[in-house]
Sequence to fold (237 residues):
Amino acid sequence: MKLIWFNSIDSTQDYIKSHIKELMDDTCVLANVQTKGRGRYGHIWFSSLEEGLYFSILKKNLHIEPLSLVVGVSLFKTIKTLYGIRAFIKWPNDIYVLLEKPRKVAGILVEKIKENNIIGIGVNLNQEDFPQDISDKAISLKLFTGIYISKQHFLTTFFDFFYQDIDYFNSHGFEDFRNIINDNLLYKNKLITANDGKVSGILKEVDKDGSIVIEKDSRLISLNAGEIESMMPKETW
Ligand code: BTN
Fold:
């Protein structure tokens, strides 16, 4: 693995995109701060504090579907191993903890360009506070646990799980990942809504192909990640 570590950059994701031809497989681009960090659906990923962890990995010729869920399991295992806390996987690409209500600690953005996968990961590691608009939705692992974790330590633990999980997927497929996700699925058996209210129902489980299964009027509907935006609980916490 080759690591390129910037102090400040627009987005580690965009750096890989614009240098994709000259970058080797398994290059990891990391930045202490990002000026244009982004999440799914063009959302901004708040990246102006050095206490956050922002990195992207280039994986060429990796044929894993659903990749964001498998990476989510590696991230989930990293957080569980380092902090020993109860964390939750929010389908299809986030990690949450529960502090009165669910709060996001990490997000994953997977983008594909031909046979190249760009896996972007943002983790709220050691931040002490957040901008007002996200302060009740986000939390850092340090705020949640009281433990400081170095970026290097988090990264090496994550990479151990990530490469193990890729090998495991290649020999065993998705089923064991699916079980981990279903055992730790945020909003499981709760009434959820998505796509500005156009989708609603009880969230049941993640399917064999990584789709989400929602029960609506005693019927089960299976939807893939591209079909669902902004899933949230209908009930208050
Ligand atoms: C999401 O929650 O929607 C995904 C957030 C992904 C953020 C990471 S930070 C490193 C990489 N660079 C970016 O611009 N985005 C990803």
